[in-house]
Design brief:
There is one protein chain. With 105 residues, this protein is an alpha+beta fold. It has one domain. It has three helices and eight strands; from the N terminus they run αββββββαββα. The strands form two sheets. It has a six-stranded antiparallel beta sheet with strand order 1-2-5-6-8-7. Strands 3-4 form a two-stranded antiparallel ribbon. Strand 3 and strand 4 form a beta hairpin. Helix 1 crosses helix 3 and helix 2 packs antiparallel against helix 3. The longest helix has 16 residues. It is globular and about 40 Å long.
Length: 105
């Protein structure tokens, strides 16, 4: 994951909290005035699943080809990478990175 995300994003890995590995940075401000900082993309190796924070806009065509996973609002849960199509995962990461950085251009 470190190599794949690093190659696609061109960014160094950074720890976000105790278990999330993130790439890129974004500052956000809500209408309420609450603000904070977050990674643009990343992953978290957890005991039950590998959590991938890679969902950009309209990922469905790629998700159909990815392999076994569960989907959250903005993330994917993968139990084993052996059954995942890594080329499709690379495409998902690239698409999500393009979506996440579009506002920077």
């Amino acid at each position: 994951m470190l190599r794949l995300f690093g190659e696609v994003t061109g960014e160094p890995a950074r720890m976000w909290g105790s278990s999330m590995v993130g790439y890129g940075h974004q500052h956000y401000v809500y209408e309420s005035g609450r603000e904070g900082d977050a990674m643009r993309l990343g992953f978290s190796p957890r005991s039950a699943n590998l959590v991938l924070y890679v969902l950009g806009s309209e990922p469905e065509p790629l998700l159909e080809r990815l392999g076994p996973h569960k989907r959250g609002v903005s993330c994917l849960y993968v139990t084993t990478l052996d059954k995942i199509d890594m080329d499709v995962l690379r495409e998902l990461v690239a698409k999500a990175w393009a979506d996440a950085t579009a506002d920077l251009r």
